[in-house]
């Protein structure tokens, strides 16, 4: 059996910031993560949040852990993620 993880003790400023991130951040994944933190704060389980966003419970647990460790910075994708570009900058200029 897995331990239930919930985000507790959010300040009013954090709730407001997360709400604004959920509504207005340009990146979908960041909006999704911010909303997940708010849902967890309201007592929604990681399993249910995973169901809502069609991701596994471990993914949601990872988001919650990053929030606990890094705060807002933990919700934003870090640079260097994804596949490297096939074209170099010099080849892009030639095109």
Concise description?
This protein has 95 residues and is mainly α. It is built from 5 helices and no strands.
Describe this structure in words.
- The protein is mainly alpha-helical and 95 residues long.
- It has a domain at 12-75.
- Helices cover 58% and strands 0% of the residues.
- The protein has 5 helices and no strands.
- The longest helix is centred in the middle third of the chain and has 14 residues, at 28-41.
- The radius of gyration is 16 Å and the shape is elongated.
- The chain starts with 11 loop residues before the first helix and ends with a helix.
- The model has no long low-confidence stretch (mean pLDDT 88).
Topology, element by element:
Elements: H1 12-24, H2 28-41, H3 46-53, H4 57-70, H5 89-94
Oligomer: single chain
Order of helices and strands: HHHHH
Stretches with pLDDT under 50, minimum 5 residues: none
Main β-sheet description = none
Assess the beta-strand content as a share of residues: under 5%
The dominant shape is elongated
**Beta-strand segment tally:** 0
Number of helical runs? Answer: 5
Structural class by SSE content? mainly alpha
Radius of gyration: 16 Å
Helix content: 55-70%
For the residues shown, what is the average pLDDT?
Answer: 88
